[in-house]
């Protein structure tokens, strides 16, 4: 069976950089935005739309009765949301079956639970996340500290709701991961060689 590493991460914690550097160090395939691109290709939807969907929990306009799913009620928006998630699960499973790989986000740890992936969660304190955001994203340089904190908290809240909706598990719960890494005041590229030794 292929060796698979899944990475969940708080926004601004450096999880994407960590995943990319770890894949390079190990010689594993790396999947992140590629998943979004493939979903868009297979569903004929725009990447921007798919990206928006996979970062949000499906919203409901009215209550769902016990024993009757919203999907069965014929709501087009919800059906499309579920189609995107199902396609995402199919793509991630195909990627895992293809070769050793590192997969960032997308509920991969849950989708691939039968593959027994090594599950990592990356987190950091707010100050460190803000610092990384300002260094990596020019658009964040224009935001006030308050605005940036709200952006980071908002994105993490959406990720949490999305993950919990599809998996039934709390996002970022240490019990659901093999390794949780605090990247506060940490240089990612210096940390990766140490973690790579686990493999």
Notes on the structure:
The protein contains eight helices and five strands, in the order βαβαααβαβααβα. Strands 2-3-1-4-5 form a five-stranded parallel sheet, with helices on both faces. The longest helix is centred in the middle third of the chain and has 23 residues, at 76-98. Mean pLDDT is 88; it is low at 60-73. The protein is 51% helix and 12% strand. Helix 2 (33-43) packs across helix 4 and helix 6 (126-136) packs across helix 7 (145-167). It starts with a strand and ends with a helix. The protein has one domain (4-196): Rossmann fold (3-Layer(aba) Sandwich), CATH 3.40.50.300.
Name a few traits of the molecule.
199 residues; alpha/beta; Rossmann fold; five-stranded parallel β-sheet; 51% helix
What kind of sheet is the major sheet?
5 strands, parallel
Q: Count all strands and give the number.
A: 5
Order of helices and strands: EHEHHHEHEHHEH
User: What average pLDDT do the residues reach?
Assistant: 88
Whole-Å distance between the termini? 14 Å
For the record, the count of structural domains works out to 1
Estimated helix fraction: 40-55%
Global geometry? globular
- Could you give the order of strands across the largest sheet? 2-3-1-4-5
Secondary structural class: alpha/beta
CATH-level-4 superfamily name: P-loop containing nucleotide triphosphate hydrolases
Strand content: 5-15%
Low-confidence parts lasting 5 or more residues at pLDDT below 50? 60-73
Rg over C-alpha atoms, rounded to the nearest angstrom:
17 Å
Per the CATH scheme, the topology name is Rossmann fold
- The name of the CATH architecture is 3-Layer(aba) Sandwich
CATH class: Alpha Beta
Count of separate DSSP helical elements: 8
């Amino acid at each position: 069976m292929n060796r698979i590493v899944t990475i969940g991460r708080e926004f601004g914690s450096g999880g994407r950089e960590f995943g990319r550097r770890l894949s390079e160090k190990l010689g594993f395939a790396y999947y992140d935005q590629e998943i979004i691109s493939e979903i868009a290709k297979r569903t004929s939807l725009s990447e921007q739309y798919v990206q928006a969907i996979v970062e949000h929990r499906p919203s409901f306009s009215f209550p769902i009765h016990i024993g009757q799913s919203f999907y069965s009620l014929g709501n087009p928006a919800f059906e499309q949301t579920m189609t995107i998630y199902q396609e995402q699960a199919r793509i991630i499973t195909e990627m895992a079956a293809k070769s050793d790989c590192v997969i960032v986000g997308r509920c991969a740890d849950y989708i691939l639970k039968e593959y027994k992936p090594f599950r990592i969660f990356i987190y950091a304190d707010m100050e460190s996340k803000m610092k990384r955001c300002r260094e990596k994203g020019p658009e964040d340089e224009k935001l006030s500290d308050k605005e940036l904190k709200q952006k980071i908290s908002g994105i993490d809240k959406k990720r949490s709701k999305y993950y919990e909706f599809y998996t039934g598990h709390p996002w970022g719960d240490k019990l659901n991961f093999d390794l949780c890494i605090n990247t506060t005041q940490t240089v990612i590229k210096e940390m990766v060689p140490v973690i790579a030794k686990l493999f």
